[in-house]
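Quick question: what would this complex look like in 3D?
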Amino acid sequence: NAGVMQNPRHLVRRRGQEARLRCSPMKGHSHVYWYRQLPEEGLKFMVYLQKENIIDESGMPKERFSAEFPKEGPSILRIQQVVRGDSAAYFCASSPTSGGAYNEQFFGPGTRLTVL
Amino acid sequence: EDKVVQSPLSLVVHEGDTVTLNCSYEVTNFRSLLWYKQEKKAPTFLFMLTSSGIEKKSGRLSSILDKKELFSILNITATQTGDSAIYLCAVVVRETSGSRLTFGEGTQLTVNP
């Protein structure tokens, strides 16, 4: 059973370009979470999605960032017009259910975004 | 606003030492507390704690939760250089739309030979 997969593992973009980060959850998992880890900081929640629905996007910056989790295919975190401050490690996690008391999220290897 | 605070932020010890990492929290609708170990890659799951006073153990690692005083500790005995990592504490918070994690800043543990 493959774990959470993210690609690319490393992404370099110039200021103003777009970045697309992909996350394939574990088999059987329908809940996806995106986190950002800035240098010298902890993991920060960004957004929580189920298939075709954004459940909680309270951690997403108001502009330039968007996320989707279509019925088919991976979840995508999209950053438009990237700036140097977007340079960070972006982690995706998945869980089989969010409603139970014993929620455990499995993390992908992360995508390291570098904005030049 | 939910808050998870870890201490110390960094810790340097020698192999064989015992360390205690702390995590305190102030959140609404607490569900559980999770400990992760993060090396140069994604965090890996260590423990999940939902009930007070019940110690979870895995080898040289153990953890316990105090829901009255709103904190948890992670103990590592007989530390090894391979224990060097960032240890993250996260609290699962229940919301109307589901649940999500709030992370602390992490404790950077360095174990020297």
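Answer marked as accepted. DSSP finds no helices and eleven strands in chain B.
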